[in-house]
Amino acid sequence: MSANITRRQFLKLTAVGAAGLAAAACAPRPSATGTGAAQAPTAQPGAAGAKTVRILLDSWAMGEMPFDTFAREYNESHPGVNIQLQSTFEGWDTKVMAQINSGNLEWNAGGIASSASSSLPRWILSSMIQPMDDYIKGSTEKGATDVLGDMIPTIRKASEHEGKFWGFPYSYENISFNWRVDHFAAVGAKAAPATWDEWLTIARELKKWGEAEKIIPTSFIPDLDASIGSMIYSALSNPFNDDMLLKWDSKEATDALTLYRTMVWEGLTPQHGFDGWLDLYYAGKLSSVQAQSSRGVWGQLAFGTDKVATSPVPTYQKGSGAGTAFWGNCIGLLTKAPNPQEAMDYLIYTMGPQNDRWQKTCMQTGKTPVFQSAYKLIETDPMFRTYAWMIDMRNQVDRSMARPFNNYFSIQDTYYRKYLVQFVEPGSTMTAQECANSIVKDATTEIAKQKT
What we know:
Elements: H1 2-17, E1 51-57, H2 59-64, H3 67-77, E2 81-87, H4 92-102, E3 109-114, H5 119-125, E4 129-130, H6 133-137, H7 147-150, H8 153-158, E5 160-161, E6 164-165, E7 167-180, H9 181-186, H10 196-210, H11 228-233, H12 251-265, H13 277-282, E8 288-292, H14 294-303, E9 308-311, E10 326-334, H15 340-351, H16 356-364, H17 375-380, H18 389-398, H19 408-424, H20 432-451
């Protein structure tokens, strides 16, 4: 629910603060609920007798990005094809799997899956989607020959399994430090903190400065990847152990938990480290938040590009770690799709490296481009210099590492949320090591149940 609220608020800000952006031209469509059927396809022109290519997409993605616009353009320039876009609905993946098994699949592609997360692996391992390599090679669309070679290597690797490419990302996000430049300047900080120690020092100064106005210095969000997970990433060159879990038993992990609780107990964050952070952010009462990189752009839409900046997360020690957690927003090609080549061609036409309009809209929504060539737009187009921070995000992700190919991270996230709240409650006697051990114990038990 919080994610949906976030996206709605973002779209509202986009429409008000950047009415000319392509992202604001496509309002999100509500998904069908309780019907077991997809929303009616969006009207797209297509020649009589053309191949119908139906694609399922999350409504928030269609709201942010001009999939419709390029579907219309594609249909007009490809008279033998009729692209139809539909919003996903509750249980859509179950229906897709049933149709695949019965041999009467009506859709060709679906999204949005998250690479470097559990959803894309689940789609692959359940055989809901098929590899894209042959269809990329078979495409005659402009940009097809550059799709894989131009993609940021780490992002590409996150969509690969057993030597095949499975999920075509239209953008990616990583965890970043989003901060109020004006607040930080008021305490003499001209740059984002580079280390955890600098972060704590500046937060304490911000608390004194903003106490009368009830301004909170910093915040996390509840997700493991955006909070302690990214702190472990920022401390270790390899954040995962041989069991493919985060290295909870490391000194760096317990130091991260200790710093987190220190910030909560000193009132440097909202309660629990994140309660109500989004409302505080939009109300101008939050000086910084470690969260998805798009949150910086959303803050710029609210307060101005000179008031909010996005920077790499503070690290355990200066220059340490393996970047941050990241994920691609991917579309998969469904197994037994009736027109897989035409679906792939549309995806390349729309999201490929040759489509500068798509790449620019991606940046304007706060999402980071997946193609290396897109960053030249930032360097050469004065209108996009404000997105220069994305170069830092690209460099950070370029040295990062994808999560292991399983759902262990999401299992850890479940127990992390449970024990973190207990750990940071006022007067809690739980130690950082006990908190970490509890997360590992419960996650390991759950993983063992899956294996049996």
